[in-house]
Amino acid sequence: MPNAGVDFNAPATLRKWPSIRNERAVSMWGGVPYLVAEGSLSECIDAFLAKPDSQRHLYEVHTKAQPPLVAAIVDPTIILELSRLREFLQT
After folding, report:
1. Is the preceding omega at residue 18 within 30 degrees of 0, hence cis?
2. Model confidence pTM above 0.85
3. Pick the residue with more confidence: 69 or 16?
4. Are 14 and 47 in contact (CB under 8 A)?
């Protein structure tokens, strides 16, 4: 089965937004996401999955866009879906 057009070996970074009361401190308040991990898309997905569920909304993955499934900035919901897709494709 083809890999649905997703290159899990593509370079990526996992970034975290600074938070105020567990909510993203967006750029209008001076917050920008900072680097947490660097590696392949697959490695960044694994690093994201290692984070506590209660804090995952503060993270995003930056990678090359791979339309239609992967945007250049991947939000937590899509990261979880990519994790499921990756598991499905590897079985």
Report:
1. no
2. yes
3. 16
4. yes
